[in-house]
Amino acid sequence: MTKSVSIDIGISAPDREAIAGGLAKLLADSYTLYLKTHNYHWNVTGPMFNTLHLMFETQYTELAAAVDEIAERIRALGHSAPGSYKAYAAMTEIAEEDDEPGAEEMIRRLVAGQETVVRTARSIFPLVDEANDEPTADLLTQRMQVHEKNAWMLRSLLGG
């Protein structure tokens, strides 16, 4: 029999559960974006190859670290972090694709993915603020800053 350990960090059990659920969705979006970005890194071609290959590598490397931070925060709140493609596919708003887009379409899709992650992170904030969960608020702020900047940098390649 596994002994249950009480968690008393100043956030109620229902709030911890709701926040962990929001973070699980953020994890799903982030991992899906990681996979898409890594795929594009491998498969980009054309005149912008070197620029995009390096940019995509920087972005997927950062995402690899981020998914770990998000999962660890879910665990700190006392919940299990999802860790399967099936679970991520059920939660993410980022579409999986089976085609091979050109470089410009890759950029457009990554902009959309970056913006999706920002919206997901932003959607969790009201509950996090109400629960006075400063560590999660800090994590969400950092994630939004990274993804907003990435979206801007990608958009700039499209002239916008």
Please explain how this structure is put together.
It comes from Thioflavicoccus mobilis 8321. This is DNA-binding ferritin-like protein (Oxidative damage protectant). Belongs to the Dps family. This protein is mainly alpha-helical. It has one domain: Ferritin (Up-down Bundle), CATH 1.20.1260.10. It contains five helices and no strands. It has helices at 13-43, 49-76, 85-91, 103-130, 134-157. Helix 1 (13-43) packs across helix 3. The N and C termini lie far apart (58 Å). The model has no long low-confidence stretch (mean pLDDT 95).
Characteristics:
DNA-binding ferritin-like protein (Oxidative damage protectant), mainly alpha, Ferritin, single chain, 160 residues
